[in-house]
Amino acid sequence: MYYNISFDIAAILVLTVIEVGMKTVLYTDTPGHKLVRRYVYSVIVSAVIDVITAYTICYGYMIPDTLNVLLNSLYQFSSIFCVAVAMRTILNYYPSASAKSVLINRILLYMLVAFASLNVFTGWMFRFENGVYIHGRIYYISYILSLAVVFHMLYVVITNRVDRPAAISRIIILFLFLPTIFTVIQMIVGNILLIAFGEAFSALIMLFALETPDYRKLMKTMKELEIAREEATIANRAKSDFLASMSHEIRTPINGILGMNTMILKDSGDPQVIEYAENIRIAGNGLLSIINDILDLSKIESGRMEIIPDNYDLFSIMNDCYQMNRMRATEKGLDLIFENDPDMPDGYFGDEVRIRQIMNNLISNGIKYTKEGSVRVKLGYAENHGMLEISVEDTGIGIKEEDMGNLFKSFSRLEESRNRHIEGTGLGLNITKQLVNMMQGTIDVKSQYGKGSVFTVRIPQKVTGKRRMRDFTARLKDNVNVSKDSKTTFRAPGRKVLVIDDVKMNVLVFKGLLRGTEITIDCAYSGAEGIEMTKKTRYDIIFMDHLMPEMDGVEAFHRIREDKDNINHDTPVVVLTANAIVGMRSSYMEEGFAEYISKPIEQRELLDVTEGLLGDTFSLPKDSVS
After folding, report:
1. Residue 282 vs residues 40, 75, 277: alpha-carbon distances, Å
2. How far apart are CA 485 and CA 322, in angstroms?
3. Rounded mean pLDDT of 283-309?
4. 310-478 with 488-624: one CATH topology?
5. 569 — phi, psi (to 5°)?
6. Is the pLDDT assigned to residue 426 strictly greater than 60?
7. 53-97 pLDDT, tens per residue?
């Protein structure tokens, strides 16, 4: 019988080159490197014995049968040793493999050794008769057991792959499959010796993919990056926790300040006191704006900022932005001019809150950096592209060409020494750009240093309805008495609400904001006290603070809901919270709350929520607060 030994010779040469390289330029002092070298040695020895046995089989008539059996059995043992070293090499990369898996691997190897040993005396696998090589009855058992070892190791790799980078698992799977494929081909063809060649290929892959010095450096770098990623995740979580705490701790006192200030504005008839209170309102809203900017940046950076589209009127946004900025412009002696295409649509489908935020940020920025002249706001709609265009032009200090690259960076203020008197966090433009990007829009800047800047935003928005804008200035005069901060309210005599809050100042503010509605307001200063009150009196609405000592608002809410004997178990409950971070509204809604109001509480929002939950069961006309 003739055997083609060309592939064995090639394997020996390749493996010899690999061994020389591993001892010199590719040397690393690691357990994996030592195991791969041991695997290379074992395959070289096995391939050499395979070549020798190929010759003894071909010239069997010249060699005693017993010697041939011993030589071929030696090849069997060398092959089993190769498999054992290969398995040990793989297990080195998966230290988390279970003791059971290691035991199964050893049992399969011991079975291979046992069959090879028995064959010396029984000839069950192979034998020689008068120099002729003959397959025994269970010749293929050695191949089957070898494949069983391979597939078992494949199972170990797959079940433990989460412990290693995906690239390592793919390389080791390839390391397992190459010898297997060559073994199957040899079983089919018969007279071409391919197993050692497949093992040489797998050793080459293992060496250059996993055990070269460059690879070890790469693995070290990847491990360092993974540690850095985990540390960054922990730091980001800590930042989010800090922001949530800051939101609550700062908004709670602001709620008291702005709420009581609202009472002063409503009740005082002294022009001087009203002027002072108005200044407090402006300063308080400025502080609130800074907090909102920081929270918005956190939402964007964490990828949790959501764009929530709905139908809206553009005039309403323009009116809000005009009212919010006109006083600041007047105080600086600036002209705040709003212009628009009268024929542009008024109704759109998009995120009204974010459109208002973008427009307000650009106007506020223009006023901030303009000492004299004007801030001109222009709006138009490109119907052919479906783009809402917002342009804000100022006659301010302008921007140097070399500073353009830093314009939209977080916490950045250009020409710090010159603009140190300018208030703000330096987040407005950064947030604006990111919001525009989230809505698939664009923002362009043109500026001439010392003469002013023009910011132009284009955002895709769908038109709803056929109503036209008309001229903004003319509509503003028609709607001069219409304002979201109007002191008008509704009246609902005979209705009862319960407010539960551990801060007495917040309760006073709440009662003051609903004064004039003729609603009876009961108060509780803890969750437990609130629950007891709900058992005795039927309320139309319960307003519940979230963070309270001993029992928080969420727990108190569920206790009321789950107690079917409580006469208020189905009463709508509105959560009052200083936690204004992203996702809180949906989180409270999932808990079962009827509505969510963030602190500081806006009077208009509180009135709208209260009126909406009371429904149309009263018909008294709206009137001024008495």
Report:
1. 78, 91, 9
2. 13
3. 67
4. no
5. -65, -20
6. no
7. 887 887 777 888 888 888 888 888 888 888 888 888 878 777 778
Structure tokens at 492: 């609902």
Tell me the C-alpha distance between 25 and 4, whole Å: 34
Structure tokens at 317: 């946004």
Q: Is 604 helix (H, G, I), strand (E, B) or coil?
A: helix
> How do the residues of the chain divide into helix, strand and coil, expressed in percent and rounded to 5?
55, 15, 30
Nearest-5° Cα angle at 325, 322 to 329: 115
Task: Let me know: does 19 contact 41? Beta carbons within 8 Å.
Answer: yes
The pair of three-digit structure tokens given for residue 550, joined into one six-digit string: 């001993």
- The Cα 152–Cα 176 span in angstroms is 10
At 26, the pLDDT band (50, 70, 90 cuts) reads: low
Backbone angles phi, psi at 170, to 5 degrees: -65, -40
Q: Helix, strand or coil for residue 489?
A: strand
Contact 354, 469 (CB under 8 A): no
At 350 the three-state DSSP class reads: strand
- The class that CATH gives domain 310-478 is alpha beta
Tokens of 614: 């009371």
Tokens of 185: 């081909």
Q: Where are the alpha helices (DSSP H) in 24-124?
A: 31-58, 65-93, 99-122
Instruction: Specify which residues 347 forms β-bridges with.
Output: 313
What's the pTM? Answer: 0.47
Ordered by start, the domain boundaries in the chain are 6-211, 238-301, 310-478, 488-624
Which residues are CB-contacts of 407 (< 8 A; sequence separation ≥ 6)? 399, 414, 429, 445
The answer on pLDDT for 529 being more than 50 is: yes
Structural tokens at position 525: 């200063």
Give helix 65-93 / helix 195-210 axis angle, nearest 10°: 20
* CB atoms inside a 10 Å sphere around CB 333: 10
Report the pLDDT value the prediction gives residue 43, as an integer from 0 to 100.
82
Closest CA to 292 of 300, 234, 363, 323: 300
- How many CB atoms neighbour CB 171 within 10 A? 19
For residue 72, what are the contacts with CB-CB under 8 A and spacing of at least 6? 53, 56, 57, 126, 133
Q: Which CATH architecture has domain 488-624?
A: 3-Layer(aba) Sandwich (3.40)
Amino acid at 608: D
Among candidates 600, 290, 319, which has minimal Cα distance to 431? 290
